[in-house]
Sequence to fold (589 residues):
Amino acid sequence: MMVNQKVKFETRCLHSLVKVFADEELQEAAYVSGTALRGEYYSFQVAYRTALYMKNIRVSVKSGLAADSEVTVKSVGLAPSELPNYNDPDDYLLRTTPGLYPDPLYPLEAGNGVVHALPNQWRSVWVTVQVADEAASGVYPVEIDFAEESGEALGSGVFQLEIIGAELPEQQLVHTEWFYLDCLASCYKLETFSEAHWAIIEKYVAHYVKSGMNMILTPLFSPPLELDYGKYRPTVQLVGVKQSGKTGDETYSFDFTLLKRWVEVCLRNGVKHFEFSHLFTQWGAKHAPKIFAEVDGDGTQRQIFGWETDAEGEAYREFLTQFIPQLVQFIKAHGLERSCYFHLSDEPGAWCLDSYKSASDTVRSLLKDEFPIIDALSEYDFYKRGLLTHPVVSTEHIHTYIENDADNLWAYYCCCEYKNHESNRFFNMPSARNRIIGVQLYKYDIQGFLHWGYNHWYSQRSRREINPYQVTDADMAFPSGDAFLVYPGEDGPIDSIRLVVLREALQDARALRLLESLTSKQEVLALLEEGLSEPITFRQYERGSAWMLEMRERVNRRIAECVRGGQEQGHEQEQKQERDNMHGRGLPC
Fold:
């Protein structure tokens, strides 16, 4: 901690799992050092406080890191929460009261960023080091300096970051946070698929991938998600449709131009997988999504399917019979055979088993079992009957699937996972509760993780647009933090604490896989659960940030030991080979 006696300006370095509230005393002890692997994003905070009212405090960075390791500093903002939790939460929470919560991370202008200090309020800046893939191992100081507008020093925080000489491997987990093209168009007041819309889409896709997502929701037709019965989201349809012929004998042709452009945008920004939007309505698979088409060449677009469409009727079945084979041709023509997943209906329950089975039978017969079908659900009977290939299971119910050794298992959580200490990311939950998901996904070899809200800036059931800086609970529907991970900036996305910590969770899983490649899964699990009274599950784990931070440090140290051991062994082998070569030439050893 650095204190400027003249103005009583306090600073304190903190780890990334602390949430600094403006209305309470900062209890967390200083955290001034840590380790990171090459290719990793490492974050820490510097909290600051003064008794005075001070604006335009200049923030600057000094770093011993090479230029290829980027250091960014952001100001931690506050966001309102009227609904921090439902009435029956568990006890692993920071607080349960409405109010202002630290969450948005506002960029500071490089070299000229300023923050403000309000009397006796602790605030913080968020520092992220993007460690270069080729960074040299060693310990590097990262100093954050605060100064008055005049340049007079106020205080500073110094963090010692040690870089381990091993690179974080590529993420194997398939990860999607549902990406809403309609929300982008609505928020930025843009015509759908105009050039301006495409420009903002690309900025968000780039951010999406950088944040740890590698699969993206692809709206073939307007997604039938988060809607009241009979209502629709704004139209975002990537496949053009033309319909001709008499009723009952329709012929369809399809234009994949927009879909091709979308795929190109995603691929050049690093997206690896595409999940096609649901071909049937949510919570039942009883109707078709909204689909527009040009009918009989009249040049106008009209709706041909929607809530009025019986999903099991001949009309929609015939549409799919013509559409899916042509979509498969597009997939294969663009080399995407191993990258595409299909959705039927989101969150079906026992009440709609028959309609979901009908949808599954239709689509699987047309796909000829060449592509995986994934859907978020909890009822084990859907998987047991073989109605989908990749069950995406709520962490509240996933133990049933684990106990039955389900194949191709994915996980998800939403607003319902808050009663039994399941990982989640509500505003009022500790960041350690957010981050534990990486360890859990690794331990149980979960193939993918899905969440419904990367940028859902609409209210519950998509009834209206909301300002996510003012409404963080979808109009008092879902606890703050459930519906979106990013905020809309003037020219692109604004990070949240929750998103950055979630990326740390994914990095934890990657580090564990690296250690497994150097040792064994058995050894990694033993290291993870060392000293714990019970094995780690999706409900049972060591709470608090101390265990999480110490666990990751142990993993990094063990990786470093393995790398050094491998280097020493390689050096010994080289020396032995040289001695053998010298002996073969008759030279003295």
About this structure: The chain has a mean pLDDT of 95. The radius of gyration is 26 Å. The chain is about 30% helix and 25% strand.
